[in-house]
Amino acid sequence: MRKVSFQRNYLMHPAGSCLAVFGDTKVICTATIEESVPPFLRESGQGWVTAEYAMLPGSTGGGRKRRELLKRDGRSTEIQRLIGRSLRAGTRLDRLGELSIIVDCDVLQADGGTRTAAISGGWVALYDALTVLSDRQGSSGPEYYLSGQIGAVSVGIVDGKIICDLDYRHDSQAEVDMNVIKRGAELVEIQGTAEKGIFNRAQLNEMLDAADAGIETIYEAQRKALGLPG
User: Fold this and answer.
1) What residues are paired with 53 via a beta bridge?
2) Vertex 168: Cα angle to 198 and 21 (nearest 5)
3) pLDDT score of 196
């Protein structure tokens, strides 16, 4: 694992905000509460958690990254759907009431693992937004709305070796690339691709074991940032 940290309250205005740092990858995550839900949830009594993702100009090498002003590219759309699914897996939507929490994840600097940093940092921002919501609604705290802690990490095979938390150099050379998202000890989603080779069941198990260890490191960093017991 690269060095992982989460800086809470990075911005003053959102209900929750966090700067997630995975090595040289830096993603700012903000959580905003809106008193509305998508049309399919109106009059249901249920809330919603969704996400948006973008890479800012200057976040990558090889020239300026253009702003996505009118339409997300396919990659950004796929990633923000993944972030939303992951955060919803950790939220009791039926306890929110008819409101939405939008988690915006903007990549300040990319060196691999932006989606996993966004998910992990997004959970910290979501936790703080739920603290604000708890104060408004008079509930017993943010845990009332949560079904578990969410963390994500990339893992792969590079030159025949298992690597956890791939940076760009590793990612560009990987024979196998995988993203693992968990809620506590349970799996939320696995995205695995044989980029330049194939892998067997034993290697898959090794990668999942490495991801388990990496996500435990992320959980610890999240709890430390939030001041929660280990």
Assistant:
1) 105
2) 125
3) 86
Order the strands of the 16-22 sheet from edge to edge.
Answer: 4-8, 16-22, 25-34, 100-109, 48-55
- What CATH number does the domain located at 4-226 have? 3.30.230.70
Residue 158 pLDDT class (50, 70, 90 cuts): very high
Lowest model confidence (mean pLDDT) among 25-34, 50-59, 78-87, 211-220: 50-59
Q: 212 with 190: CB under 8 angstroms?
A: no
Burial class of residue 117, CB neighbours in 10 A (0-12, 13-18, 19+)? buried
Domain residue ranges in the chain: 4-226
Which residue in this structure is represented by tokens 């791939």?
166
Residues 118/125, Cβ–Cβ less than 8 Å: no
